Amino acid sequence: MENANLPDNIKSIWRSFADKTFFPNLESDAKADVAIIGGGITGVTTALLLKEAGYDVVLVEAMKVGAGNTGHSTGNLYIAVEEGFDTIQSKYDTETLKTVISARAEAMALIEQNVARFNIDCDLHKRSWYCYSANEENCNKIEKIYNAARDAGVAITEIAQGELPFPVAKGVKIDNQAQFNPLAYTQQLAVAIDGESCRIYENSPVTAIEEQDGMQFVRTPQGSVSAKYLVHATHTPKGVFLDFHSLLGTYREYGIAAKLNSGDYPDGTFWGYYNNNERFSVRTYEHEGEKRIIVVGQPHEVGQKRDNNENIARLEEFLHQHFDVREVTNRWGGQHYKSADVLPYIGRRSADSNVLVATGFSTDGLTYGTLSAMIIRDELFEKETEYTKLFSAARHNPLKAAGNVIKENAINAVELIKGYVFKHGNAQDVAAGEGKVIDSDGRKLAVYREEGGDLRACSAICTHLGCVVSWNSAEKTWDCPCHASRFDVDGCIIEGPALIPLEKVEVEGK
Ligand SMILES: Cc1cc2nc3c(=O)[nH]c(=O)nc-3n(C[C@H](O)[C@H](O)[C@H](O)COP(=O)(O)OP(=O)(O)OC[C@H]3O[C@@H](n4cnc5c(N)ncnc54)[C@H](O)[C@@H]3O)c2cc1C
To answer: Which residue(s) pair with 446 in the sheet?
Structure first.
């Protein structure tokens, strides 16, 4: 089976500033106490903590370590949350907010310890986190964030006009937050822990998962892992997990990195609220004297944007408005999953299950992924803590869940399918560099025409639950609007819950 190829036209900054890893493929059957699927920050940190707790661990990664969303994030570490402290306080209460903050602070401390302990070269630095409104309209939100943080005992302060490189109507800051290169961190951590009781395999996509006689079997093309416990460290659980997939909002969001003409690269993590609900996150990255400015934002629901080149263009426009840009060096997209009740789902799938999950991180998952490792270790030891309880994957919070997450996704997906996908005619209509879903003898095909004119086609029916995929023009992938599985132009899986690639199809004609 072929592995997915991440397109080169769209490449995260971290792929330009990290080495490659060279772990072997899984080529025969293996046994372990714990099988971990996924080599992002969640899987690798979980492997570390379980190995150190005395478990024998096998980790299988479909692509390369860190190649998933960890390598497509912004690399900011902070106790704040994307929705704002006030959202947690109002949905829950101040005590819950305090627990979330202390959990995130402990996870950040673990990252710092790992960097020091394993001598990881990932440009980890302390930075302030700033959150501001560029207009009067959002000052109220900043006020609420400030008040909730104060209630929870956070050392948050108001900032003065002119303190930031952006026009600010109202802003706040928290010192002693951090930034790093998330791909370099995860890769080097994986190298440090790989060994006899922790075996890491790359290019080994899991294609089936079975449970027999209390054992978990994880199948890859050339070998299987059998284990008592199974951890889905795959950002969203693999296979059919409707208990989670129906509660997750699925989003793509974009990033760009650039060189500036002038040397004024701002130090800090800057989250800005703008008109029309737009938000931008800005930071600087520096490696061995080379600097880049990074801007991230412009989310949309997966598979539901006709032309996402617009989203990237908007980031570039924002950057040019505020900085003297010499050259945009990187453009990329990443995925995130929002839980229905604002907190991630971490731990055993149900109270007595040996299957554990870690999902619903929103854009806060470098820290939540690290926290997941701590919670999963505690759960395997049957240790109940305030974190295992609060973030429990087995929790049911119907009153706190925004039921509209799934409803909106489902409705939008149906609308999109009705209004767009089925209209298209045949392969001749597909222009060079474009993809379209066509109806061919009653069969929906996902057809892409290479710049050179050749066609590549596969079934347009997502192998997860049978929705029709849609074309992602900026990243040149097929994305499923239902539960966010993504496939390359040959149908190989890039991410999401699907376990089986799209079926490849030969199409005739130029
Ligand atoms: C634009 C953007 C910016 C962000 N910025 C930040 C930030 O600044 N700070 C922050 O805290 N969070 C941020 N996040 C969120 C963060 O990137 C993620 O939550 C985090 O990286 C999740 O890590 P993970 O290990 O759980 O998932 P991933 O890094 O996605 O790892 C999952 C791994 O599972 C593998 N996998 C999938 N299927 C299979 C299979 N079948 N077999 C084997 N392996 C498989 C994948 O290849 C992948 O490597 C951002 C997200 C986005 C989209």
So the answer is: 437, 458
Tell whether the model's pLDDT for residue 406 goes beyond 70: no
Span 345-363, mean pLDDT? 96
The answer, yes or no, to whether any atom of ligand 1 lies below 6 A from the CB of 362, is no
The yes or no reply on domain 123-182+249-337 and CATH 3.30.9.10 is: yes
| Ligand 1 within 6 A of CB of 491 | no
Q: How far is CA 95 from CA 98, 106, 109, 347, 372, in A?
A: 5, 17, 21, 21, 20
Distance 439 CA to ligand 1 centre (A): 34
Q: Where are the domains of the chain?
A: 34-72+183-246+341-404, 123-182+249-337, 420-505
- The CB of 364 under 6 Å from ligand 1? The reply is yes
Phi, psi of 158 (to 5 degrees): -85, 150
**Ligand 1 contact via 3 beta carbon (within 6 Å):** no
Neighbours of 254 (CB within 10 A): 25
Among 12, 129, 235, which is best to mutate for testing ligand 1, by the most ligand atoms less than 8 A from CB?
A: 235
CA of 70 to the centre of ligand 1 (A): 4
H helix count then E strand count, the chain: 11, 25
pLDDT tens string 104-141: 999 999 999 999 999 999 999 999 999 999 999 999 99
Tell me the pLDDT tens digit for each residue of 149-194. Answer: 999 999 999 998 888 988 999 999 999 999 999 999 999 999 999 9
What is the CATH architecture of 34-72+183-246+341-404? 3-Layer(bba) Sandwich (3.50)
**How far apart, in whole angstroms, are the C-alpha atoms of residue 98 and residue 85?**
10
Quick check: CB of 237 below 6 Å from ligand 1?
no
Average pLDDT of the residues of the chain: 92
Question: Tell me, which fold does domain 420-505 have in CATH?
Answer: Rieske Iron-sulfur Protein (2.102.10)
**Interface pTM, i.e. ipTM:** 1.00
Question: To test the ligand 1 pocket, which listed residue (12, 234, 283, 374) has its Cβ within 8 A of the most ligand atoms?
Answer: 234
Please indicate whether residue 312, judged by its CB atom, sits closer than 6 Å to ligand 1: no
Q: Put the strands of the sheet holding 435-440 in their side by side order.
A: 435-440, 443-449, 455-459, 504-505
